[in-house]
Amino acid sequence: MKTWTTTNGLKIHRISNGVYNCFLISCRGKHLLVDTGRENDWKKLRQKLDKLEVTGSLLTGLILTHSHYDHAGNAANIKKIFNARIMIHKREADYLRSGENPAIHGTTFFTGFITEGLSHWYLTRFCGYKPVDCDITVEDRYDLNDFGFNAYLLHTPGHTPGSISVIIENEIAIVGDALFGVLQGSAWPPVATDSGLMVESWERLLNTGCSIYLPAHGTERSRELLQRQYKKHKRIQDHQL
Fold first, then answer.
1. Fewer CB within 10 Å: C terminus or N terminus of the chain?
2. Helices (H), the chain
3. Which residues contact 95 (CB under 8 A, 6 or more apart)?
4. How far is residue 22's CA from residue 14's CA, in Å, rounded to a whole number?
5. What angle, rounded to 10 degrees, do the helices at 75-82 and 42-51 form?
6. Structure pTM?
7. 147-164, pLDDT tens digit by residue?
8. Domains and CATH numbers, the chain
């Protein structure tokens, strides 16, 4: 289980279930969980939280970077077991409430071909999850000081309309699917609702000053890599205009 530590001692644990990453943010005995993985991975998630000694009221909040099934699939279970307050962007609260998924589109020729034919059918038929109400809706920015963390939530749309990232002490960003860490030298997600917005969100993430970016799929991306990717895809976007 990989762990990152900020300058002030705040810890971030990666809870990985194969191709899906969740993250636990820990500070002075309190915890925030970022994303939950798929519903059928609940047993693995619970075991890893137990190993990290996360019990009862110690888990004060659940942050959902967006409402796709592989991120929100266990939100209802977390709410039931830990009574943690659920945070999600206001544009995705209705999806969470109904256990549904925002639509996606491919960002490459191959993923575009696949998603245009299958995404709506697949997401609606096979990827539903237990619905649950959120407790806090995020707009552009939401401060986490009241939870005891020097961190905030930032709206970073593109992958979905309500995607958010967690900015921790302006050092480390947990970004959901705003970028991917699967292919070497790349941060480009294979699917998004709006590629142009996603590139704009990369600029927002760079402006936070963070040096490490933790995606929900793959491994960490550096600031230098994200800067190169931003310049490359910004040029492509500008040329298309």
1. C
2. 42-51, 69-72, 75-82, 93-98, 109-126, 195-207, 223-240
3. 67, 101, 102
4. 6
5. 40
6. 0.93
7. 999 999 999 999 999 999
8. 3-240 (3.60.15.10)
